[in-house]
Amino acid sequence: MLKYLRIANRRILLFPLCSAMLLIGMSIFSGSSCALSLTEAYALALQNDPTFQMAIKEWEAGQEENNLGLAELLPKLSFSYQNAPKNWQKMESHSENRLGKRIKEEREQQYGSYNSAIILTQPLIDFEAWARYQTRQSYALMSDARFRAASQQLAVRVVNSYIAVAYAQDRLAQITQQRIAYEEQLKHNQKLFSSGEGTRTDVAETQARYSQVFANELTVKNELDAAIRDLQLLVGIPLPTDLPVNRLSDAPKFKIIKLDLKHYTDWEQLALRHNPSVDGCPPKS
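That's the ABC transporter permease sequence above. Prediction below.
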């Protein structure tokens, strides 16, 4: 089932299709060569990131504030019902017969009774309820802004983690090629030195460069492991150390969005209109 949240008259898809998530997880766990795309990582983060899940619950709590405030303004309808199926009544009467003798008569009867009432109340003017409604509505609007900010922050965190993995993989591939090149050069210099055509200085310099590149390779491997762990915390599933990711250079039609903003005031107005963290702040005069 898809779960939607309505925010600012828009429907935001929070939980992608379970089948798509299953296919992504199966392709990753099976060691498939299919690369993890940025949209797939974002879809997984929407479902599994604990920070964003907390933001969803906070938004739901904020919407309840709006409902509670509206409930105080609406008419109140109450209904009561009482049923007594067994009521006993004792009747006693006194009379005189023809002889003038006083006669006492007693009679008991059983009967059922019920009572029901429907009461509708609506205050004409209740300033206190109206003030509480406005306060709760403000809380709901604040929760909307915080949720939109959390959504944007999630996108930024996913992009940063994804790019960090791609960058570390590129650096590792580059340094690995350097290590292979220095390793071949070291073997070549050692052969030349053994045959009397090379010098010990060339071997020492190549050995030093090879050791430095080898140390850099270990450092980059640690950075790649850390980047994959950060991305793994966002997507919520284990990721292999050799996780393939898509690169922007692989996209056939990648276009950079051009922003015609030349002055600081233009950037400020754009942030005031679209940044939920400063949404509602009055612009400077």
